[in-house]
Amino acid sequence: MVGSQNVSIGKLAAIIGLGVGVMLIILGRDPLDSMANGCTIWRETGLLGVPAPAVVCIIAGFSLLVMDWLYKLLFCPLELLRASDDVGYIAEDGRSRAQAANEVRRRRKTGELPPVYPNGWYRVLDSSVLEKGAVKNVYVLGEQLAVFRGQDGKAYVLDAYCPHLGANLAVGGRVVGSCIECPFHGWQFQGNDGKCVRVPYAEKVPLFAKVRCWPSCEVNRQILIWFHCDGEDPQWTVPEQQEITKGEWVYRGRTEHFISAHIEEIPENAADIAHLAHLHTPGIVSGVDLRYTNSKTWEFLRHDWKVQWEPESEPNKHCSQMHVKHALTVFGRHWPLLDVHVVARQVGPGLVFLLFEHSFLGRGVIMHCVTPVEPLLQCVSHTIFYQSNIPPLVPKFILRAECIQFERDVMIWNNKKYISKPLLVKEDSAIQKHRRWFSQFYSENSPRLQYQRNTLDF
User: Fold this and answer.
1) Residue 89's closest CA among 80, 101, 99, 81?
2) Residue 359 confidence (pLDDT)
């Protein structure tokens, strides 16, 4: 993932080639003129007066760009990381997307909200971005956290602020064994319990010197933390996808979005069956802007959905399942080969496993993770792992299609108001059923948004 932020070697070579070619055209002279006393072979073979070396450089540069694009398309994971203002807002009257987003957030009515941080497991990082001895500064659940990997290979999560004089352990902090060292005065805190084990200039370490240690786990190549408003221990475990652990399914990409909404709004879509026919029937070629998705231009392609949502019983009452049957219609003709059956299993408030199984397209999973950043800001990631023997283009297309459909929902979530007592018809009964199921993740002391002070009350 880090490498995706850098310019590839092929692209760099292409840029250099194109630059040299353009420079030769601008200079209007042959670099070989100084050789062979005015030899005109290159100039005579030029195209419309353009020096031949310039033509060669331009063609080579363009070819390298095409090869770089094809390589990424066919072999590299798909990574679409959206900023909070990129999706879900309409910028009009000369405003930028950032201006439009700020205006919506400032003026929108939020409604009577449930508690803002449900109890459960939440993703904080992908395992691949945390190498041994590395530390990351992460902001989730309204808290600054230091996530680091000890020399023992284990990932640890502590509150970021040192109790001594408040330095951020994750900004300049150093990993020492299974401890993290404060960059300010060198105090060292154990990753497994947060206790201070060394003060370099003191004879004795205070017994009460410690930082909060967050219960965490590393599974399915993700690092997750457990949140409970009363500090209770984890009440369930995160299911391990054996195909990922064994390497049978490989990483093929991820998307990331920041959504301005209450966390409950997002999983509730699973029970809102009626919205699928209205919002997600238009083909993915019609895009994500809801003003144009129903354009007659794109009516030749339609998605048809059959959905059923049900909670699971004990001992898995914290889980629910949505069964989705998807069919594709092109110019009024059904294409059975592209029918897909997806089982979306939600585990707690912040994790969903979308399992794909198809005789032609193969098997895989999209891990849909919702992590509260702030009370009304959610980080949502979709990470796809797929059969290693299936061409990467297949899971990348599935992830891209999922992203398009998801971004239609983002436009709704970013602009809607939460209705605590919605006006429903009998066909909406699953929505109330879902709200009753989701309420198990709230406790009496769960933090709520206090409008008067615009802060959290713990």
Assistant:
1) 101
2) 79
* Type of residue found at 155: A
Angle value at C-alpha 59, between 58 and 62, nearest 5 degrees: 85
Non-local (6+) Cβ contacts of 92 within 8 A are 100
Ordered DSSP codes for 206-238: -TT-B--B--EEEETTEEEEEE-TT-PPPSS-P
Residues in contact with 247: Cβ distance below 8 Å, sequence separation at least 6, in sequence order: 388
Would you say 10 and 16 are in contact if contact means Cβ atoms under 8 Å apart?
no
Per-residue pLDDT tens digits for 175-218: 999 999 999 999 999 999 999 999 999 999 999 999 999 999 99
pTM: 0.85
Name residue 247's amino acid: G
CA-to-CA distance for 299 and 283, rounded, in angstroms?
A: 8
Q: Is 407 exposed, middle or buried (0-12, 13-18, 19+ CB in 10 A)?
A: buried
Dump strand ranges (E) for 260-350.
301-311, 319-330, 333-334, 340-347
Asked if omega into 282 is within 30° of 0 (cis), the reply is: no
The whole-number pLDDT of residue 455 equals: 46
Q: Establish how many alpha carbons lie within 13 A of residue 65's alpha carbon, considering only the half-sphere containing its beta carbon.
A: 12
Q: Do the beta carbons of residue 139 and residue 145 sit within 8 Å?
A: yes
Mark residue 454 as left, alpha or beta (left: phi above 0; alpha: psi -120 to 50; beta: remaining).
Answer: left
What is the identity of the amino acid at 323? H
> What value does the CA radius of gyration of the chain take, rounded to a whole number of Å?
27
CB atoms within 10 A of CB 302: 16
306 phi and psi angles, rounded to 5 deg: -125, 120
Can you count the helices (H) and strands (E) in the chain? Answer: 8, 21
Report CA dihedral (417, 423, 426, 428) to the nearest 10 degrees: 0
> Treating both helix axes as pointing N-terminal to C-terminal, what angle do 52-75 and 393-413 enclose, rounded to 10 degrees?
80
- pLDDT tens per residue across span 253-310: 999 999 999 999 999 999 999 999 899 999 999 999 999 998 888 889 999 999 999 9
Both tokens of residue 225?
């933390």
Residues 6+ apart with CB under 8 A from 161: 144, 167, 168, 169, 211
